[in-house]
Amino acid sequence: MSTLPTVLITGASRGIGRAIAVRLAPTHHVIGLARSRNDLQTLGAEVAAHGGGFTGLEVDLRDRQAMALALDGVACDVLVNNAGVMFKKPFLELTPDEWHAMVDVNFNAVYHVTRAVLPGMVARGRGHVINIASIAGRSAFVGGSCYAATKHAMLGLSESLMLEVRDQGVKVSTVMPGSVATELTPGGSNVGWALKPEDVAECVASMLAMPEHALMYNVEVRASRPRK
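User: That's the sequence. What structure does it adopt?
Assistant: Structure tokens below.
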């Protein structure tokens, strides 16, 4: 049985989540949570190639009952709430299904997944919850009424939770990336200047490398290259 700490990553099969899984593979047993079985299988192979152990959980984060079943009995030392969806369009063009998909995946799932594993962290007196938020969590953009709202909500949840559990040995941190070249980027956009998923993964690794007595709570990471 692995003696490495365990990291649970939501939205692990692609983009930022996949990059975090690969980056942490040498130092953590990775539990990847995603909807696609095929993507989880290829991620497992990639994690193994980097020397890590892997467990895949196939579940739709919009399905509360499925989440409860998948996470029953799951314990982890680190939780990375990364999963996210975005429909970038004017408010009056957003459909109810698109609105609820963003709220369910970007925010409600953070509650359900964290609620499932946090009691174990508190009982053990150690653990780290890292929420992948966004610069949109403190600003706004045209077509981002719901997406930005979910990220604002995540920041409020994160800070409140940090204050609640820090005296019980559990850390809570947020990463606020700027534009990242992932599948969330609207088709046809030039993102050669943007952050790479690996940049965000490196930020997560830095948070975990902090001394036990120190908390890197909220980090904003941006691309340093000019837009072209």
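The domain at 6-221 is CATH 3.40.50.720 (Rossmann fold).
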